[in-house]
Amino acid sequence: MSKERKVAVITGASQGIGEALVKAYLNRNYCIVATSRSIKPSSDPDVLTIAGDIGNPETGQRVIAEALRQFGRVDTLVNNAGIFLAAPFTEYSPEQYVQVVSTNLNGFFYITQAAVAAMETQGSGHIVSITTTLVEHALSSVPSVLASLSKGGIAAATKSLAIEYARRGIRVNAVAPGVIRTPMHKPETHEFLGALHPVGRMGEIADIVNGVLYLEAAPFVTGEILHVDGGQSAGH
What we know:
The chain has a seven-stranded parallel sheet, with helices on both faces. It has a single domain, classed as NAD(P)-binding Rossmann-like Domain (Rossmann fold). Helix 1 packs across helix 6, helix 2 packs parallel to helix 3 and helix 3 runs parallel beside helix 4. It has six helices and seven strands. With about 240 residues, it is of the alpha/beta class. The longest helix has 29 residues. This is 3-oxoacyl-[acyl-carrier-protein] reductase. One of its GO terms (biological process) is fatty acid elongation. It holds the Pfam family adh_short_C2.
């Protein structure tokens, strides 16, 4: 495999936004390393799939090591894997707390650490993480402290990493979605969820993909939290 062809690593890649990102980067002639707990083996030589729990420190290290072994480089990491649990603060269980922190925070930290080490060696790279606009625009109708705690940490880390690595050729950005129409939202909830946005509708998976691709193609943009949220972060 030529080391000149760019490589994107995408977490949470088996469905929804992650699956769409795999297709989008393939269409831009990237080789792909796709990982999730339930991802199936790939018959496409340009797509390496790795099943594993992203919250496990070993998984992130293994994914980046396999990317380097198979394709020789890592140009982009999209931290898409995440869990969203909405509940009143006092009703979260210890098990839910551990689950969210493991997937959202551990799942960001370990694979990003391994990816940045690889990118430093080659002198270039791009990290994009999917957060949530609820970090900056909390809604009383959607109590979600665990999302804010974990994704808010990623948003802050995005800016910190962007500054730390700005002169080393590595850009770090994030996309902060509103509510996106995916299979996790039952059709009977769509009207309520759409009304949470000033534009009056839910977002589409393509909206998030386009946001990520914009950041991918914007070499002067780093430390940016790009809100793709139908106006939620601007107000109501």
